[in-house]
């Protein structure tokens, strides 16, 4: 292990550098293909307890996964180790302030485990240091397992790490991440801001979306991937439907908290979306021209049909189908609805 560095020329200003870093922190999956997202557990403005101050070379790994009831304890541990005190943001200028955050990295691949990184943002030095603090038993493969610093200096951006010369992670940091940071900053500057924030998520809070997605993934996804009887790629479909369900559930919750919605999924395919929405307390039906093997494995409350059987439709679902022209009211006779 030696100190490795990589430097790239850039005309980025400090503001643009931080814009880039914020993209990296809020949406690491845009560049790290092993991730589907991240969750920030805390982000605190801090002040060093003593001067001169130097960030430590490494941090202790967490002893367990981060959860709502132990995050406070981990925060105290991390801030103590960094030798900084929590302060109120904007109580003074940026000088000597360091922002500390704990980030959970969520893996795209089901068999991978999540990772945890602490990031220290040293605003007045245009520098950020990342530490891997993933509990040892997680064997994470999502981020470099060594600490590294990215700093903006006059006319160049510098990566420093204590790493192996042939480390793939170091190569990824120098050849992929570093140029991307410059690119994001340059794009912001030329105000062709490619909106990295998924437009389609803009109706719901991204943090809430990731939380909901993660909850649903744990609740339904893992089991589904195990029992998947179709010849299609289980994780692809499960991911997609869990993502759609997470989005819809938040949208509906926002419209009318705690009320049950009616829905119709036309061309429902495997029916997973109908299954999740039904289990989450909403009433609906899935319709598809072709029945799938997995349909028989869902519990009785999950209504999936190859033909519209109006007896299973609530008035609202029926109205929905009429509205979109899927069925014509004049053709309906002697149904449970009438
Ligand atoms: C692209 S797949 C989408 C499946 C599912 N909604 C999903 O997101 O995984 C389209 C589905 O529409 C179904 N489909 C096509 N034409 C249909 C029709 N006229 N009535 C009902 N289902 C139809 C197909 O069988 C297929 O399952």
From TrEMBL:
InterPro entries: SAM-dependent_MTases_sf, tRNA_uracil_MeTrfase. Its EC number is 2.1.1.211. It comes from the Eukaryota. Pfam families: AdoMet_MTase. It is an enzyme of class 2 (transferase). It is found in: Cytoplasm. The keyword Ribonucleoprotein does not apply. One of its GO terms (molecular function) is tRNA(Ser) (uridine(44)-2'-O-)-methyltransferase activity. It catalyses: uridine(44) in tRNA(Ser) + S-adenosyl-L-methionine = 2'-O-methyluridine(44) in tRNA(Ser) + S-adenosyl-L-homocysteine + H(+). One of its GO terms (cellular component) is cytoplasm. One of its GO terms (biological process) is tRNA methylation. Keywords: Cytoplasm, Methyltransferase, S-adenosyl-L-methionine, Transferase, tRNA processing. SUPFAM superfamilies: S-adenosyl-L-methionine-dependent methyltransferases. Its main location: cytoplasm. Belongs to the TRM44 family. Probable adenosyl-L-methionine (AdoMet)-dependent tRNA (uracil-O(2)-)-methyltransferase. This is tRNA (uracil-O(2)-)-methyltransferase. It comes from Spodoptera exigua.
